[in-house]
Specification:
alpha+beta, 24 strands, 3 domains, single chain, 8-stranded mixed β-sheet, Immunoglobulin-like, elongated, 357 residues, disordered N terminus
């Protein structure tokens, strides 16, 4: 092995980058080489692009050393592809930046996917959508009232949705709420932008109304369900067959939204789930009637208490109920009603003690 071949090992490898404004070289652009091995990125070097948009960095040959080149243009940050310190790209590494624009009529929701999964009294919803930006501009939106952020687009959630979790495309600092609307304040890059989220609906009854609302026009809608009885209405949905996913049949429906921004979607075929809050007034009336019409001479002492084993089981159920509440496995109304029932049954073990007269 020649000593000349060892020179790159000691002095590092040459990294060449080229920054382009769409397809034209961008001069006098600050380019930063970052190390992203830790949670806190570290600046390695900084250069200014020349008249041809070129910058050159000397990169140390370090194994398991992940690097990226970053630049900012018009207030937006752009990144190169990631590369390793011991595998520096030999070809010129391009970074493309774009001019900005508030909005464009050609930006639209290319495809909206809603997946409904019935699990007992819960209905889990996985929502994903693709926003197509066919322009050569980064869409940055308009300034919102009483805020220093721009609204790029928004979409609505059902008013009964809870346990919301964001997936692809969402950044915490670029999301805000306006009632039941989710407002996106981050830019939309040219090309296709992918988003996904998950939420649940508590105790849907027979038919669930899902108001679909976007600030952008929608081209196509696809619905999937895990039950043959669950069917969507509201658009001219057509069956797209079924597929096997994770050992269960998934039923597919498709419709053309004709670039509408909002429509009323209904999911029918759900089981009847009556919330405990509906029964609470009836229980209250029943208890009141019993207190009015049961003879006064009937005392708790005349009621035969349950066995000691059942007392132990009731206390165990009460502790389990507390754990379920802390883990948000049941709703607040279910917790209150089930706790009331358990305490009523346990009260037979703790008779009221009369004071001395």
């Amino acid at each position: 092995m020649s000593w000349i071949s060892l020179i790159p090992f000691f002095i590092g490898s040459l990294l060449q980058t080229k920054v382009l404004l769409i397809n034209k070289p961008l001069a006098h652009q600050k380019m930063i080489l970052l190390s992203v091995d830790s949670n806190q990125p570290k600046q390695v070097a900084s250069k200014i692009s020349d008249s041809k948009g070129m910058t050159r960095f000397r990169v140390e040959n370090q194994k398991d050393h992940t690097l990226v080149v970053v630049t900012s243009y018009k207030g937006l940050t752009y990144f190169s592809d990631l590369f390793s310190g011991n595998q520096v790209p030999k070809a010129v590494l391009p970074i493309v930046v774009y001019p900005t624009k508030e909005a464009d009529k050609r930006v639209h929701v290319r495809e909206l996917n809603l997946s409904f999964e019935q699990r007992g009294a819960l209905l889990n919803v996985d929502e994903s959508f693709v926003i197509d930006n066919p322009t050569h501009f980064s869409i940055v939106g308009k300034k919102m009232e009483d805020s220093d952020k721009n609204e790029v687009f928004r979409f609505g959630l059902p008013n009964s949705a809870y346990a919301l979790r964001y997936g692809t495309g969402f950044q915490r600092e670029a999301v805000s709420f306006d009632g039941y609307d989710v407002v996106i304040t981050g830019p939309l890059a040219p090309g296709r932008n992918y988003f996904s989220l998950h939420y649940s609906v508590d105790k849907p009854r027979l038919r669930l109304k899902v108001p679909v609302h976007f600030s952008l026009p929608i081209s196509k809608v696809e619905i999937s369900t895990n039950k043959a009885a669950l069917r969507p209405t509201g658009l001219n949905f057509k069956s797209a067959g079924k597929k096997l996913f994770e050992n269960q049949d998934i039923y597919l429906f498709q419709a053309d939204a004709n670039h509408e921004k909002s429509f009323s979607l209904k999911i029918s075929g759900l089981p009847l789930n009556v919330p405990f809050t509906w029964w609470l007034p009836l229980f209250s009336l029943l208890i009141l009637a019993l207190t009015l019409f049961v003879p006064r001479k009937l005392h708790l002492s005349s009621v035969v208490p349950p066995s000691a084993n059942e007392k132990k089981k009731l206390l165990s159920d009460l502790r389990l109920l507390e754990r379920m509440r802390k883990r948000e496995m049941i709703t607040s109304s279910e917790y209150q009603m089930k706790r009331l029932r358990l305490i009523q049954r346990l009260s037979a073990y703790y008779p009221e003690t009369k004071g001395n007269t």
